[in-house]
Amino acid sequence: MFEKCKKAEVLDKSGALVCQCRVSVGHSGAILLVIPRAAVYKANTNYRVVFYDPVLGRVICRCRLSAALPLPGGELCSLRCEVLEQLIQDQRRQDVKIPLGMNVMLHATYQPGDPIEPSSLGIPATIVNISAGGVYLRTSLLLNVGRRVWFDFAEPGNRNAMTLSAQVLRTEDASLSQNQILYGYGCKFVNLLSRHEAALRSFIFQQQRQQRQQQRKQQE
Predict the structure, then answer these.
(1) Does residue 7 contact residue 22 with C-beta atoms inside 8 Å?
(2) Of 53, 57, 55, 50, which is closest to residue 94 (Cα–Cα)?
(3) Which of 3, 90, 101, 197 could form an SS bridge with 58, CB 3.0 to 4.6 Å?
(4) What CA–CA distance (Å, rounded) separates 8 from 10?
(5) What is the rounded distance in angstroms from the CA atom of residue 70 to the CA atom of residue 73?
(6) N- to C-terminal Cα distance for the chain?
(7) Could you tell me the sign of the dihedral formed by the alpha carbons of 82, 86, 90, 93, in that order?
(8) CA–CA separation, 79 vs 49, rounded Å?
């Protein structure tokens, strides 16, 4: 279990994030987590761990975490994670979409018949919503079903962008006014690297958590 998982998050009883961590599985099947040395947690205590697995999807488990062993360099520690119970599993087919409204530069290879040749810098586009399996884009670039597009995506505050490739599955008129012609594209990601899918799942989960917290505050 989790042989292909590389990323996870540790949550406390209230659901607050304790830390993000790297995941590895030993030959004996033992799950090891690499966490920041500054992370505050109690050894031999139960926590919820959210695993972002490219095969299993997002899996939340109740786990017991061992004492941490400092790693060379002094900034990271390694600890053993014992899975006591699987609580939730979101399969890939159940990928949750979150509204985003993020602006990106969209790229597509020029093909004969295109009204314009895309700039090497890309065409401005907006990510209306996104999931670990696909994205809905709004842009002025006219594309047909089946076309491949790509764009650089980075979480807010993170300078390390990842390039995501997608294939257009459906198109629609998304114009906001008569003077501004826009197209909407429902796309599925293609050739998605495991680490990119794990990063997307983590980002989407964080966005969901923030939205729930905001909703609770508004209801108070």
Answers:
(1) yes
(2) 57
(3) 90
(4) 7
(5) 8
(6) 40
(7) positive
(8) 13
For 68-72, the CB contacts below 8 A with 24+ separation are 68/35, 68/37, 68/43, 70/37, 71/34
Distance between CA atoms of residues 72 and 78, nearest Å: 10
* Amino acid identity for residue 121 in this structure: L
What residues are paired with 58 via a beta bridge?
Answer: 52, 90
pLDDT digits (tens, 9 = 90+) for 61-102: 999 999 999 999 889 999 999 999 999 877 554 567 889 999
- Report the alpha-carbon distance of residue 75 to residue 97 in Å, rounded: 35
Tell me the C-alpha distance between 36 and 144, whole Å. 46
Lowest mean pLDDT among 48-57, 64-73, 140-149, 209-218: 209-218
Give the Cα separation of 129 and 60 in Å (integer). Answer: 23
